[in-house]
Design brief:
The structure holds 2 protein chains of 2 kinds.
Chain A (H helix, E strand, L loop, with lengths): L7 H24 L13 H7 L8 H7 L1 H9 L7 H5 L3 H5 L11 H9 L14 H5 L27
Chain B lengths: L4 H20 L15 E6 L8 H10 L9 E7 L8 E3 L17 E7 L8 H4 L6 E3 L5 E3 L9 H5 L6 E2 L6 E2 L5 H4 L6 H5 L5 E5 L7 H7 L2 E2 L11 E4 L7
The chains are: A mainly alpha, B alpha+beta.
């Protein structure tokens, strides 16, 4: 007795499933990115793409490689923990090409005031002054001659003001 | 090796899953940065913040954040002497240009820098329908903007309000913990530019990182601990009125 007698329709039915599954696999390999699932339920290559973005703030280590005198002055004064670009702005472009990208010198009356303007809302131990009364409109650097180590010009901090 | 039919049925799908990872390539592509050695977090000291807005400006510059949107911002709290639970909170333009001067010293004032809390169990990544946002193996919550649909489900899922839909790209955007900087050995733009050291980037997997000593010896909180987000933005000196 032939057990495969009258079973053609079952094989055709199974073939439909197999073809459907192969089409699904084919489509899936086409639409799902290669690195999807590398680390989890996301595209693994996205990590490298995000990490590849160029930086705009070079970081103080890079500045200090060339500007050693300022770095030394700063390290000895009260601004030791203030990084270069916190005042001078994003300068990775200058670090990459020091000759053609020249940074603009910050205006002391704007720059110093940003942190040191007196307000009752600031922590009490932070040095702050009423700018108008304190300087009478003169730039801060008239007396605090070296902003990298802003002790008074007459009595420079050790290794600080010029 | 004897493999039973039942065993084989279990092994086949497992092998299929593994094969996909094998085909995908090596996990550690970056030569100088080993993802498995990092688990990033942030330490924020409230008593050190002076509300200068340097972090907000630096973040906007570094990451091309459009005007009116913020990956990080600073809030100023004013808790009056008579109402300790309902503080007055302001954040003009995210604190980008600083804060209005206060003459009268009444109640208490403090600044709270806000940013992505780099949650280990982040609610925002769990709701993404397409797998476009995720917690990276080194602990940053990131968005794959080429894969994001812009449905904004994650924007409403973040309990800290740290996400937005980019006005021109129309996809979710957020703090990446300066992923392009921290993978190059630099610190984040906000940390680099904080003049008082109120923010510190922390690698929780590095036993030499000062964060461990700090967490051991100081009272540190996270925002909305009741949400069980596994937040890695640790706040030192946080007032109870902060929401």
């Amino acid at each position: 007795m032939n057990i495969f007698k009258d079973t053609g329709h079952l094989f055709r039915f199974a073939a439909c499933f197999v073809i459907g599954f192969l089409v699904y696999l084919g489509l899936r390999s086409f639409v799902v990115p290669k690195t999807f699932g590398e680390y989890g339920h996301y595209r693994g290559a996205a990590l490298q793409e995000l990490a590849a973005k160029p930086v705009k703030y070079a970081g103080h280590q890079v500045c200090e490689d060339c500007h050693t005198d300022q770095a030394t002055a700063k390290a000895a004064g009260v601004h030791a923990h203030v990084n270069c670009e916190a005042c001078h702005g994003a300068l990775a472009a200058h670090a990459n090409d020091p000759t053609s990208v020249i940074p603009v010198k910050p205006d002391p009356l704007v720059l110093c005031a940003r942190c040191h303007t007196a307000t009752a809302a600031k922590p009490k131990d932070f040095p702050q002054v009423k700018i108008d009364e304190h300087s009478g409109g003169l730039p801060c650097t008239t007396c605090h001659t070296n902003p990298h180590s802003p002790a008074m010009g007459a009595a420079p901090a050790a290794g600080g003001a010029k | 090796m004897n493999i039973s039919r039942r065993h084989m049925l279990v092994l086949l799908p497992a092998a299929a899953v593994a094969w996909e990872s094998v085909l995908a390539g090596t996990p550690e592509n970056s030569p100088n940065y080993n993802m498995s050695e990092h688990w990033w977090g942030m330490l924020i000291s409230i008593p050190k913040c002076i509300g200068c807005g340097n972090c907000v400006r630096a973040c906007a510059t570094e990451n091309d954040v459009p005007d009116g949107f913020f990956r990080t911002w600073v809030e100023r709290y004013h808790v009056s002497d008579y109402n300790l639970t309902e503080p007055e909170v302001i954040s003009p333009d995210g604190g980008k240009e600083g804060f209005p001067i206060v003459e009268e010293d009444a109640g208490k004032y403090f600044y709270v820098p806000k940013m992505c809390n780099a949650c280990a169990d982040s609610p925002c990544t769990q709701v993404c329908p397409v797998g476009a946002t995720f917690v990276s193996p080194d602990g940053a919550v990131l968005v794959d903007q080429t894969y994001c649909l812009g449905c904004a489900y994650c924007v409403q899922a973040c309990p800290y309000g740290c996400r937005y839909i980019h006005p021109t790209k129309h996809v979710a955007d957020k703090c990446t913990l300066c992923y392009h900087r921290i993978t190059k050995g630099l610190t984040t733009a906000c940390v680099e530019n904080c003049p008082t050291g109120a923010r510190q980037l922390a690698n929780l997997k590095d036993p030499k990182d000062p964060i461990h000593e700090f967490l051991k010896t100081h009272d540190v909180q996270v925002l909305k601990p009741q949400m069980a987000t596994g937040s890695k933005a640790f706040y030192y000196g946080l007032d109870g009125s902060v929401r």
